Amino acid sequence: MSILIAVAFYTILERKTLSYIQMRKGPNKVGFMGLLQPFSDAIKLFNKSLITPESANNMISYTTPPLSLILALIILSVIPFYKYPPLDNTHTILFFLVMSSLSVYSMLLIGWSSNSKYAHLGAM
After folding, report:
1. Has residue 53 been placed in a domain?
2. Record's family (predicted)?
3. Which long-range contacts (CB under 8 A, 24 or more apart) does 56-63 make?
4. Fewest 10 Å CB contacts: which of 3, 11, 31, 48?
5. Quick one: CA dihedral 53, 57, 62, 65, positive or negative?
6. How many domains is the chain built from?
7. Average pLDDT value for residue range 113-118
8. 19 and 69 housed in the same domain
9. How does the average pLDDT of the chain come out, rounded?
10. Of the candidates 15, 71, 70, 67, the residue with the CA atom closest to the CA atom of residue 38
């Protein structure tokens, strides 16, 4: 969870840096100096309405994005941040390759669940 919050603040750092390069103020509306901007963006993201075609398979199209997020978070468990990683070191490269290849299938499922030939081609 702390990695996700750190990524949110890295994006705010990137936005601030780009605003200084472009000689403008940047995100400063929410909170002190815009520090609450990532949380405001997350609330806005979750309040968006979901638009799906009528012919789409709703169960698959709603479960595959969280599945790809879970796979990405599982990949983080094999990175040795400390002296003793949470998983065994003997097969970490194999585990990393398997989990990263499974994320491709979640993208294929997202395109397949829409029942549109163009979305299916885009997922390939």
Report:
1. no
2. Belongs to the complex I subunit 1 family.
3. 56/113, 56/114, 56/115, 56/116, 57/113, 57/114, 57/115, 60/109, 60/110, 60/112, 60/113, 61/110, 61/113, 61/114
4. 48
5. negative
6. 2
7. 79
8. no
9. 79
10. 15
